[in-house]
Amino acid sequence: EVKLVESGGGLVQPGGSLRLSCAASGFTVSGNYMSWVRQAPGKGLEWVSVISSGDNTYYADSVKGRFTISRDTSKNTVHLQMNSLRAEDTAVYYCARINTMSAVDYWGQGTLVTVSS
Amino acid sequence: QSVLTQPPSVSGAPGQRVTISCTGSSSNIGAGYEVHWYQQFPGTAPKLLIYGNSNRPSGVPDRFSGSKSGTSASLAITGLQAEDEADYYCQSYDSSLSVRRVFGGGTKLTVL
Hints:
- Chain A is mainly β.
- Chain A has no helices and 11 strands.
- In chain A, a hairpin with a 5-residue loop joins strand 4 and strand 5 (45-51).
- In chain B, strand 3 and strand 4 form a beta hairpin.
- Chains A and B meet through strand 5 and strand 10 of A and strand 3, strand 7 and strand 8 of B.
């Protein structure tokens, strides 16, 4: 069974940092495109970052230079390092697997990041 | 403002048919990239509803169908049921975006 479990969310002050983790089971993250999608309170879905099976990385303009996506194949985990956090980064962050047709076929349960003083 | 435009809300009575549109451009849907649809209930993660324009994952009722034409796509729901009340999002690939992928703004479906 495919499962994605996020962790690492919480309350952080503006300018602070957080590292989100996504533990995968039932498949290997190394052979798949993985991504982070966020949803601000009461808002729609927003792509944050993607890492390809070949380790190419992609970022939304809103997080470029502040967020870094990475993969730890030994732990079958994907990470999102978030630096210089802003109030507008407050959202539920979902870990997601992208299938070969570029659709998200599996989602984690989400982890809440709140940026506030 | 998303590059994929959806109506903010649609509604219908039980048993009726509703459609949700998703309008893109030449850098996404119009370029031939496939459209996918997701259903999301409050407080839960989205769920893949339609992939590759018109394909249903296992377990999705055939009341849900998708289509694509030109720079637009549509999700149709027939035989509307109370449990279909949710938010619906379209998604595609966009070569003009740095992250390469985009969601529509979402549509709230209300079952009257």
